[in-house]
Each structure stands twice: as structure tokens, then as C-alpha cells.
Structure of Oxidoreductase domain-containing protein:
Amino acid sequence: MQRQLRFGVLGCAQIATGTMMPAIAESKSGVLEAVASRDLSRSSRIARELGIRKAYGSYEELLMDPEVDAVYIPLPNHLHREWVIRAAEAGKHVLCEKPIGLSAREAAEMTAACRKAGVHLAEAFMYRHHPRYPVLKAILQSGEIGSLRAIRGSFTYNNALDNANVRFRSAWGGGSLYDIGCYPLSAARMLIGTEPEAATVHALFSPEHDNVDMLASGLVEFPGGLSLIFECGMWAYERQLLEIIGTEGRIEIPMPFNARTDDADFYIYAGGGERRVNAPGANPFTCQVEDFASAVFGQTPPLFEPEDAVRNMKLLEACLASAAGRRRVTLDSVD
């Protein structure tokens, strides 16, 4: 019989109830053991709807449950550090929503706490677990589009009228860079395979939305003259695209961050022609659960060590500092 990782979920955010909890239930390696909310009636209702055995009225109670092996944390960004560390101290493995924290220092503290406790920590960038990406990496390594020169990434949507949204609270880690800019930033790091050197970012900080960055665009410099040009926004027409540019061609990836089963294909333009790559489809949230459980059980190495989250937070910090100061920021200047 296949081993199953018993998950507890801290909070009832939409990403949890609408996406991750169904993905855990759908997976072969995970099972929903418990859900917690500061409102017991809410967690009880979610437990009934999703067939979860236990509901708690506090996160502390869930962490005390000996039948919970791992926790998924979908809380607002400013609460990640506290509850990752408390979960680690309770001996629970941790899958934490992106971005993992508010700073590289917070991410490093979380990583150290989980290392000390001997538990696995992973940042929930589900798109990296989609089976299209190994196919894409193999094509890049084959040289079909020549030597890599640049990456362009876009991720925008418009929910500016949702005034109660936690993404519009500055002290809670709101803003488009934290929410969706982290996707093209992490994707460029993953595909280029090296760490960036500097970032220059321009942003629209909106007084109507607690002065968070509602739109940001920027240039990220990588060694060897490679670059990422990106845009992200919560107050712009919905758009997702990743373009990889080489000396002999380019790859265009529609829906690079939210693709599932029927929209995983991408396109190669090289040698004067176009080729559609029929990439395998899957629910990346379910794949993320399977990969997380496999790492916890020691069956496969983690796709990304928690130190990767620290490095991505360092880049995010540089981007935010650049936008706030309207200046170029080097990564080695970020603590």
C-alpha cells in the first residue's frame, strides 16, 4: 500500500479550499487529515464539504495533533514566518505558499528552523512541478534555439475594485511583485540556471490600495549579459506569457504559470518555421503534493531546496527596493 502524508491546513483561504485541498485529496501520496481556522464554524463547514476528518478552531490545536504529518500554509504573507517556524517546532513538514516570507532574512530563519527540526520545507510554486517544464528544459539543452540570450515574462490581472483584498495591505506583504511578480522572477532563475546580479524596476504605487505596487515592470541582469524583462500587475488587463529568446530561435509559452491538462503546449520558432510542442498536461497542484510527499518520504530529492526560496526572496527584495528608490539595485547589497 502506498504511503500517504497526512496534511493539516492552516487557514481557509480560497487558494486552500478551491485549489490545494482538492489537489491533496486527488493525490496518491497525500490525505487531508485536518483543517484549522480561527473561526471553528468555518473550518467545520469546510471539513464537512471536503470530507476532512477533523476541524480545529485554532492553528495551535492543529499543530498539536500527532496524526498530522505536514501542514500547508496559505495564510497572508506576513504570517508565513511565524507559522512555518511554529510548525517546524511542532515537528511538522511544511508546504508554504509563495512568496515564502517578506524578506530573504525571514526565509533564511524559516529554513534554519526547519533544518534544525529535521522537517522538509518547500515553497508552493506549483507551476514548477508541471510536467511541461522538463520537456522545455530538454529543448533548451538540445540547442534547438541556440544560445540563450533573454527571457521575457508577463503576468497581469485586474482586481483593483476588490478593496478588501489582503493583496492591497502593505504591512501584510501586499503588492503585485509579491503576489505574481515572483513567478517570472523564479522562472528566469530556474531556466537560466544562475543567480541574478542586479534589478531595475519601475512601479505604480497606488494610494487607493495602501500604496502597494499595483503594476511593476523591470529588468533583471544575469551573468554573461543574459536578462529577464518582466511585467506584473493587479491593475492591468489579464495576460500571461513567457518567451525564451536564443541566438537561433525562440520559445513562446502561453499560460506559463497556470497551465493544467489541456493547455500545456508551447511553440518553438526557429529556422524560419514554427513547431508546436505537445507537452504533457497535469494538475500542477497535485504534482506539487506528490513531489512534496516523495521528498518527505526520502523517495526522491526535493526539486528545490528551501535555500532556493531564500534566493528568490533576495531578488524580490532587490526589485522592491529598486521600485521604491527608482534606482538600480545589486543583489549583493541586499542583506
